[in-house]
UniProtKB/TrEMBL annotation:
Entries under HAMAP family matching the protein: PNPase (MF_01595)
UniProt source species: Eiseniibacteriota bacterium
Domain S1 motif intervals: 624-675
Enzyme Commission identifier(s): 2.7.7.8
SMART domains: KH, S1
Lineage: Bacteria, Candidatus Eiseniibacteriota
Name of the molecule in the record: Polyribonucleotide nucleotidyltransferase
C-alpha cells in the first residue's frame, strides 16, 4: 500500500515536460508541490501563520532554497561531510523566488510566510532555481494563503544562431548570448533577472514575449489544479485606518510634508520629514493613544501620495529634476595610485569607491556546485557599510541584499571582461559604497568599469548602469531615470539596466504593482539607453579607454610553451625544482599538462629571472643557435657541456680552440661556462 497524491499533472513548455503533484508529501504545510523536469526534482512548501506577527508593519516573508549534494549523488567537499551553510548561489535563488511572489500578496498582509525549496534530485539539465520559482508559486496557489496567482518563472535564452528558447538545457545556456529568468503572470511581468552579451533592447523584449507565450500552458495547469483541489483563500480584510483619523492627520501634516518633499538634499529632506512625523505622532498619541500605529501608516501613505502627485501632476521629482534627468556625475580614475586600478564614481548622493586587483590562476575562486567544481576567474565583492546612509549597525558579513547587488554588478561587467587567452590574469573588483541615495549597484558597475580600465585591463567596451523607476495611477504613468532611494521606496518599479554603447549586459526588475505591462517595460528600456549613453559620455571625461599599460604596481605575466616531455624537469622531484625557482626569483610559476607555463612576477626583474630559469630547465637546443652552457665533465677527448636540464653535449677537443689543443684541461674545467 502506498500514499497517492491528491492531484498530479503535467504540461509541455516549449518542448520541455514539467510535472507536478501535491497531497502526498508534506501534507501539514499550507501548500506543497513536488515538481519535476526530467531527472531533476524539488519539494517546495509554503506555510503561513494564522495571525499577524505582533508589532509588525511589514510583510515577513522568508524563502529558503537549498541544494543538497546528495541530489547529484555526491558528498560535500572538505573535512565535514554534512551540508554546510547556505551558499551565495543558493541565496541568489532564494531572492528569485522572493521577488517573484512578494508583490502578489495583498497590501497589509503581515502574517509570517515561509517558503522552502529543497532540491531532491539533479540531472544536470533541470535548472532547479527555475523549478523553485514555479514550485513556490504553485505551493501558494494550491494553499489557503491569500495570494494573487498564478505566476511562473521561466528561463529564456538567445542562442548563437539567434533562436529564442524557453527552458534551455545546460549546453544551450553555456553559449547563450542572452540568459534571463522571467517571472510572469497572465496579466503581465513580475520579475526579471538576466545577463547578456551586449544585445539590443529588442532582444530583451523578444525574450519577455517568448516567456509570455511559453507560460500559458503552465497557467492553465495551475488553475486546473486549484479548481480540482477546491482551494479557497482564507478571508483577509486589509486593516484600514479610521476615515476621520485619516482626514484629521492629513489636515495637520499634508502642507508641511509637501514642503519637506521639495527639499532637494536627502538628509535635510529626511530630517524635515522625521521631525514632522514625530510631532504629528506625539500630538495624536494624547488624543488617539490606541491608534499610534495607524497614524504612522497614514503618514507613510501621505508621503507616497505627495511624491507620486508631484511626479504625475508636475513632472517634478523630489530633488527638482524632470523625469529623464540624470543627477550630476563626478568621476575620477586612479584615486589610489599604489593599487592596480581604482576609481571614485559619484552620481548625486550615491558614491562608490572601487578597486581592481590582478592575480594569478592560484587566486581563482573554487566553487562547488551540483553540476561540478567551477573556478571563478573574475570576481566582484560589493560592500554596503552603514555609514553610507548615516546609520550605525553591527558590522557582519554580507547580507542577502549585498550578495544580490554584487551579483548584478558582476553580471553587468562580465560581458566585457577579456578571456583568459587574451588576458591571463585573475581579476577582482571590490566596491565599497561610500554614499547611497539609490542605485548603488549601478554606481558599482560604473566605478568598476573605470577601475578595470585604470588597471590597464583590456575591457571590450566601457559599461555603465542606470536604475529606472515608475509612478503610475490608472492610465497615467511616468518613467523616471536614475531614481533616488525615496523614489524606489515609494514608487512602483526598480528596473536596473547595465550595458555599453552597443547593447545590454545585465537587467534586474522588481515591481510593486504585481503585474507590469510589457509596453511600460519597453518604454523604460528605451529611456534607460538614453541615460546610459549620457553616463558613458561623462565617464569618458576621466578615462575613455583602458590604459595602454598595466599599473607599475601590478604583477607582470608571461606565457611560455615547453615540450610536454620537459615538464618533469621544471617541476622536479615532489615539486622541489619549481619551488626553488619561485623562492629564488620571487615569481610564481604555473604549468599545465599541455606545456603552457605562466610566469607571474611582482616586477619585470623577477619575471626575467624566472624566464631565464625556466629556459635553463626546459629548453631544447636548435641547430644554428648559440647557447651558454656549463661544463659538467672533462675527458681526454673533450668536455661535456650541459645546455639545459637533462640535455648535455660533447664538445670534441678539436673544437675547443682554433689551434691544436694538447689537453682538454688546458681550456676547460668543470663548472666553467662555455658559449
Amino acid at each position: 500500500m502506498k500514499l497517492e497524491p491528491r492531484w498530479t499533472g503535467s504540461t509541455d513548455v516549449d518542448g520541455v515536460k514539467i510535472e507536478m503533484e501535491t497531497g502526498r508529501i508534506a501534507r501539514q504545510a499550507n501548500g506543497s508541490v513536488l515538481i519535476r523536469r526530467g531527472g531533476t526534482a524539488l519539494l517546495v512548501t509554503a506555510v503561513a501563520a494564522n495571525e499577524p506577527r505582533a508589532g509588525t508593519d511589514f510583510f515577513p516573508l522568508t524563502v529558503e532554497y537549498r541544494e543538497r549534494f546528495s541530489a547529484a549523488g555526491k558528498f560535500p567537499g572538505g573535512y565535514r561531510k554534512k551540508e554546510g551553510r547556505i551558499t551565495d548561489r543558493e541565496i541568489l535563488s532564494c531572492r528569485l523566488v522572493d521577488r517573484t511572489v512578494r508583490p502578489l500578496f495583498p497590501d497589509g498582509y503581515y502574517n509570517e510566510v515561509q517558503i522552502q525549496a529543497n532540491v531532491l534530485a539533479f540531472d544536470g539539465d533541470g535548472d532547479p532555481e527555475v523549478l523553485a520559482i514555479i514550485g513556490g508559486a504553485a505551493a501558494l496557489h494550491f494553499s489557503d494563503i491569500p495570494f494573487r496567482g498564478p505566476v511562473v518563472g521561466l528561463r529564456v535564452v538567445k542562442t548563437k544562431d539567434g533562436a529564442i528558447r524557453a527552458l534551455p538545457n545546460a549546453k544551450e545556456r553555456e553559449s547563450a548570448l542572452l540568459d534571463m529568468v522571467i517571472s510572469i503572470g497572465p496579466d503581465g511581468l513580475v520579475m526579471l533577472e538576466g545577463l547578456a552579451n551586449e544585445v539590443p533592447e529588442s532582444d530583451v523584449v523578444a525574450a519577455i514575449d517568448k516567456a509570455s507565450a511559453a507560460a500559458k500552458p503552465l497557467f492553465t495547469l495551475l488553475n486546473e489544479a486549484r479548481s480540482a483541489l477546491g482551494c479557497e483563500a482564507r478571508p483577509f480584510d486589509p486593516p484600514a485606518p479610521d476615515a476621520t483619523l485619516v482626514e484629521t492627520v492629513h489636515a495637520v501634516a499634508a502642507a508641511p510634508l509637501e514642503e519637506a518633499y521639495r527639499i532637494a538634499a536627502k538628509q535635510a529632506r529626511q530630517e524635515a520629514v522625521d521631525t514632522i512625523s514625530r510631532d504629528v505622532q506625539a500630538r495624536f498619541a494624547e488624543s488617539h493613544p490606541d491608534q499610534t500605529s495607524d497614524v504612522g501608516t497614514i503618514l507613510h501613505d501621505l508621503e507616497k501620495k505627495i511624491l507620486r502627485s508631484m511626479a504625475l501632476g508636475e513632472q517634478r521629482r523630489v530633488d527638482g529634476r524632470g523625469p529623464t534627468e540624470i543627477r550630476p556625475i563626478f568621476v575620477e580614475a586612479g584615486v589610489l595610485p599604489s593599487l592596480h586600478g581604482s576609481a571614485l564614481f559619484t552620481r548625486g548622493e550615491t558614491q562608490a569607491l572601487v578597486v581592481a586587483t590582478l592575480g594569478t590562476a592560484k587566486d581563482e575562486q573554487d566553487v562547488e556546485t551540483l553540476g561540478g567544481s567551477e573556478r571563478e576567474r573574475f570576481q566582484l565583492h560589493y560592500s554596503f557599510p552603514p555609514y553610507s546612509v548615516g546609520e550605525i549597525r553591527p558590522l557582519r558579513g554580507p547580507g542577502r541584499r549585498e550578495i544580490g547587488h554584487g551579483n548584478l554588478a558582476f553580471r553587468g561587467l562580465a560581458a566585457v571582461i577579456p578571456t583568459a587567452s587574451q588576458f591571463p590574469y585573475t581579476i577582482k573588483v571590490e566596491s565599497e559604497v561610500t554614499e547611497s541615495n539609490g542605485s548603488s549597484s549601478m554606481a558599482t558597475v560604473c566605478g568598476g568599469c573605470l577601475a578595470l580600465m585604470d588597471a590597464g585591463i583590456p575591457v571590450r567596451r566601457p559599461v555603465a548602469g542606470i536604475a529606472m523607476g515608475l509612478i503610475s495611477e490608472g492610465d497615467r504613468a511616468v518613467v523616471l531615470s536614475d531614481i533616488l532611494g525615496a523614489e524606489d521606496h515609494l514608487g512602483d518599479m526598480d528596473f536596473k539596466v547595465a550595458g555599453t554603447t552597443e547593447g545590454v549586459t545585465a537587467v534586474q526588475l522588481d515591481n510593486k504593482l504585481g503585474w507590469l505591462p510589457a509596453e511600460l517595460l519597453e518604454r523604460a528600456l528605451a529611456q534607460a539607453r538614453e541615460g546610459r549613453l549620457h553616463i558613458l559620455k561623462e565617464m569618458s571625461t576621466a578615462l575613455a579607454e583602458p590604459r595602454p599599460e598595466l599599473s607599475p604596481t601590478a604583477p607582470r605575466i608571461q606565457v611560455m610553451k615547453i615540450g610536454t616531455h620537459r615538464i618533469r624537469f621544471l617541476i622536479g622531484p615532489a615539486g622541489k625544482t619549481i619551488r626553488d625557482v619561485e623562492a629564488t626569483t620571487g615569481a610564481t610559476v604555473e604549468v599545465t599538462d599541455d606545456g603552457t607555463v605562466k610566469l607571474f612576477g611582482p616586477n619585470r626583474e623577477a619575471l626575467r629571472a624566472a624566464e631565464r630559469r625556466v629556459q635553463q630547465l626546459t629548453g631544447e637546443p636548435e641547430v644554428g643557435k648559440i647557447y651558454r652552457g656549463v661544463v659538467t665533465g672533462v675527458k681526454d677527448f673533450g668536455c661535456f657541456v650541459r645546455l639545459f636540464e637533462g640535455i648535455e653535449g660533447l664538445v670534441h677537443i678539436s673544437e675547443l680552440d682554433h689551434g691544436r689543443v694538447a689537453e682538454t684541461g688546458q681550456i676547460a674545467s668543470e663548472g666553467d661556462e662555455m658559449i
